[in-house]
Structures are given as C-alpha cells and as structure tokens.
C-alpha cells in the first residue's frame, strides 16, 4: 500500500509538471505571436537645422546673409568648384528646413511601419553669430518631433540628447532636475515618453524604454563624459549613469532579455582626425569595459556625433568581439572639412542581432549639376550586399574588418561610404591606419599601442598582424615625407624672410647713397639746415 501510494503521488506530480510545462510553452508561443521578435527601426541623427540658412547666403559663412554677397556673386564664374547654397543645403553649411522635412518624408516613403525610430540628437547649427539659445533649441526640438510624428503617427519615437541640444553647447550639468525637465515641458518630449521614462529622464537626461517584453532600448546621455563639458570633469560617474547602466544590463541578463544602447557621442576616437578620445579617459575605459562584460545581451549600439559612417568592434582580452557599435552619418551635410551627403539609415533586427541596414543618401553634387524637378532619396548601399556577409553579427563584422586590412578594395569601399559618397580627399597609409585603429581600439592605452604599430585585437594572429604592420610602415613613410615637406616649406619661408630682409637693407642703403647720406646715419624725412639755400633780402643785396 505504501509503495502504491508513492507511485500514485509520483504519477500525480509528473502530471502536474507536464501541465505547468504546457502552460509555459503556450504562454511562450502567445508571447511570440503577440510581440514581433524581428522588425525595422530608423536612425535619424545630427540634423543641425539652421534657422538662418539662406539660399542667397554666403557659403563661406554657413550660408548666412552677408554684406559681401554681391562680391561673392560676381566671383562665381571665376570659381570652378563653386556650389551655391541650394534648396536642400550645401557641404559647407548646416541644414535648411527643406532638407529636414525632406529627410523625414524620405523615411516615410522608404518604409511602411517601422517598429520605432531612434533620434540620436544634435538639432541646432554649428554657428556663433550668435550661438543658438534656449528658444532656438526648444523650437527646433518641437518642430522636428512634430514633423516626425506627423509622418509616423503610430511609431514610437525615442529621442536622445546631443551636445548641440544645450546652451551653451556641450555644457550638461549633473543632478539638475529643473534643467532636464525643461526638455520635457518646453521641448515637448513629454508627448514622446511614458511617465516612467519621463521620471528617469528628468533626473539627468537618460532613461530606458521597453519596445517588447524581450527588448529594451537604453538611452544614455554620453554628453556628460564629453571632454569639452567642464561641468562634470571632477566627477567619476556624473549622475551615477554608469552605475545605472550596469544595473540595467544585469537586470536584462537575469531575464535573458536583449538591449539596444543608443547615445549621441560614441566611446573611443574619431576615425578621420585622431586626437583625444570623445570621453574623458577614465570614463571612456570604464564604459568600454561594461560593454565588454555584458556584450552577450547587447543586441547592438547606435551612435551619431561624427557625421560620418563607421563602426566599432568591442572585444574582450581574448580577442573575442563581444559587441558592435554602428556610427551613423548625419542629415546635415556640414563637416569640419569637405562635407558629407545627407543620409538616413534603416536597420533590420531580430533578437539575435542586427540582420542588415540600408544606407540612404541625398546627392547634393548631383542636385547642383542636374537640378531635378522631383528629387529622391537613393540607396547608397545595403550593408550585407556591399560587404558580402549574411548578417551583421559581431563575427561577420569582424570578418569585414579583416577584409579591410587584407584587401585594399574593401577598404576603399568603406572609405567611400565613410563620407556618404562625397570623397573630398584621398586616404593614404596614415589615414588608413587611423581608421583601422579607431574601429577596434576604443580604450586609451589600446589606441596608443595601435598608433605605435601593435594591433591589440590581432596580437595572436600572425597573418593579420603582418597586414597591419605593412600599413603602419607605409604610414610612417608618409608621415616622414610630410615632416620633411613641412621642414622644407619652413626653411623656404625662413630663406624668403632673410632674402626679403637683405633686399630691404640694400634698397635702404641705395636710398641713403642717392641722398648723400652716410650708411650709418639714420634716415630722417626732415631736411637738414644745410639742404636749404640762404635767402638774401633785397635790402642786403643793395
């Protein structure tokens, strides 16, 4: 009887387990049917709308009205590469409203129902005449968000603060609730965020948003770490954002969820001009270390700020790429040098990662040459097709990166995309080394090693190390040649100064001699008494 009772209990317990297992499976499939596990999202970045942009403006002064416009107009025919300020902008200026509106409409025309839109900041121009104040900033935020919502009424819009969304630019304080809540009230972002996101954003400009039960977007205010932001230089973790980020990543890991990290300024360096990192060094390295630790649950990272098209590989100490960061180019055509074509990016994603993206662009040069009556956004490239990979997983992005080192044609393709099809200068070996180093060396010591010729990611890969050393050796030759050229030009300048000085001395002596002066006597514009003839009066002559 006892044995029989135990067996009946075992059967009963097994039945209950099966019953609950079936419930779990059914709820899992209901969840799958209710919420998509894959979809699309747009990234819209660096609009830099200039409300003073004028089609009659001076391209040398950000296309603002100038008293010298008549002089500029008269010299147009003498300038071969002159490009007037068009309806949709030009390379030396920030974006007019026509380009902003055209961009948002272009997104709507090239997709039906994206799951969400990530708007990665910077909405006011790079001008100092004067700098955009709070009225310009808040009006820009309201106009852009209203236009996006008008074209995407049923799509979640996820806003991000950029370093040009504040007055003065770059200066974001820590723990200033009234300051950040102004974006919600005056900027109209309270209409975009739910109550929980608003509460978190109001603390310091960062928050999180659940787009599905399995996917969270973490929006960071990386402007707090920006080197020019002297309001937070003395703080290790302004607003405890890094502590909060680690907590969010731990929670996602415990729930086996995925996260997308979105911010304006990326960690690491700018690939076109290597200088200090974007973040303060200590905060930069701590941020990268968090990505290394929790890379398995980070679906991807998206950033803006640079106005260029690139990506970053974040690997652990074993050389395993744990996460990929995509840096999207800008809507504004303005760049420190040369300019870029305006751009939009559409991503395809699943819970396994980024499947693909489509990079759209608007060819300003083509507009100036052809002046089409019905301008359209064009597809510059589809990432998987351009690079010949199945998806954009960390493994495949590493494969693309390896091809960039080994095959010059692959790097040339990447470099063409880097300025959105507007190549304004060739990339020599030093330029190539800087791009290669920036993509995979985000921490401060690693970048220094890479610049010195030690590729940290490929330290155990003899073949890739050989390819990289070849680039570094050619880069050193270029830098030596550049140094020699600078030295020669400096020497020629000094020689010219010396020759000009000698000529001036010789000329001066000739002037002295022609006046009968001693070469040692200083020249005086006043005549001497002996130079005058005596005046004899009539009385004396009589």
UniProtKB/TrEMBL annotation:
It comes from the Eukaryota. Residues 325-450 form the Sphingomyelin phosphodiesterase C-terminal domain. The lineage of its organism: Eukaryota, Metazoa, Ecdysozoa, Arthropoda, Crustacea. Keywords: Glycoprotein, Hydrolase, Membrane, Metal-binding, Secreted, Signal, Transmembrane, Transmembrane helix, Zinc. SUPFAM superfamilies: Metallo-dependent phosphatases. Residues 40-308 form the Calcineurin-like phosphoesterase domain. This is Acid sphingomyelinase phosphodiesterase 3b. Belongs to the acid sphingomyelinase family. Its cofactor is Zn(2+).
């Amino acid at each position: 009887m006892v044995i029989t009772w135990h067996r009946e209990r075992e059967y009963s317990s097994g039945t209950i387990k099966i019953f609950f297992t079936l419930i779990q499976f059914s709820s899992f499939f209901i969840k799958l049917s209710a919420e998509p596990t894959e979809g699309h999202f747009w990234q819209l970045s660096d609009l830099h709308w200039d409300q003073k942009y004028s089609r009659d403006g001076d391209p040398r002064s950000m296309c603002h009205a100038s008293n010298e416009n008549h002089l500029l107009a008269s010299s147009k025919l003498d300038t071969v590469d002159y490009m007037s300020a068009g309806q949709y902008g030009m390379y030396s200026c920030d974006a007019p409203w026509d380009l902003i509106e055209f961009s948002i409409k272009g997104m709507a025309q090239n997709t039906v129902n994206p799951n969400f839109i990530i708007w990665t900041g910077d909405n006011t121009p790079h001008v100092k005449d004067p700098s955009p104040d709070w009225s310009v900033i808040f009006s820009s935020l309201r106009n852009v968000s209203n236009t996006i919502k008008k074209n995407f009424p049923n799509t979640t819009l996820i806003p991000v603060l950029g370093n040009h969304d504040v007055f003065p630019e770059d200066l974001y304080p820590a723990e200033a609730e009234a300051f950040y809540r102004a974006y919600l009230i005056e900027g109209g972002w309270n209409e975009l965020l739910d109550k929980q996101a608003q509460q978190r954003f109001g603390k310091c400009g960062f928050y999180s948003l659940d787009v599905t039960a399995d996917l969270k977007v973490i929006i960071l205010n990386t402007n707090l770490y920006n080197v020019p932001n002297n309001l937070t230089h003395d703080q290790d973790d302004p607003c405890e954002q890094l502590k909060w980020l680690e907590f969010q990543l731990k929670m996602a890991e415990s729930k086996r969820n995925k996260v997308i990290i979105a911010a304006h300024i990326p960690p690491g360096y700018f690939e076109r001009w290597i200088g200090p990192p974007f973040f303060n060094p200590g905060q930069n390295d701590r941020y990268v270390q968090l990505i290394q630790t929790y890379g398995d649950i980070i679906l991807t990272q998206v950033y803006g700020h640079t106005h260029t098209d690139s990506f970053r590989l974040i690997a652990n100490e074993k050389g395993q790429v744990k996460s990929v960061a995509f840096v999207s180019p800008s809507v504004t055509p303005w760049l420190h040098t040369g300019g870029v074509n305006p751009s939009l990016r559409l991503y395809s994603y699943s819970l396994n990662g980024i499947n693909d993206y489509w990079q759209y662009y608007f060819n300003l040069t083509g507009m100036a040459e052809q002046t089409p009556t019905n301008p359209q956004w064009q597809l510059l490239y589809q990432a998987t097709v351009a690079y010949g990979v199945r998806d954009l997983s960390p493994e495949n992005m590493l494969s693309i990166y390896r091809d960039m080192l080994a095959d010059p044609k692959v790097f040339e393709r990447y470099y063409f995309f880097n300025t959105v099809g507007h190549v304004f200068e060739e990339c020599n070996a030093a330029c190539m080394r800087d791009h290669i180093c920036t993509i995979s060396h985000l921490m401060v010591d690693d970048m220094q090693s890479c610049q010195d010729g030690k590729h940290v990611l490929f330290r155990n890969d003899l073949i890739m190390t050989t390819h990289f050393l070849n680039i570094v050796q050619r880069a050193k030759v270029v830098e030596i040649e550049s140094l020699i050229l600078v030295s020669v030009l400096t020497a020629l300048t000094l020689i010219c100064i010396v020759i000009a000085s000698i000529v001036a001395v010789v000329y001066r002596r000739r002037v002295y001699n022609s006046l009968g002066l001693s070469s040692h006597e200083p020249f005086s514009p006043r005549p001497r008494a002996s130079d005058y003839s005596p005046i004899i009066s009539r009385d004396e002559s009589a």
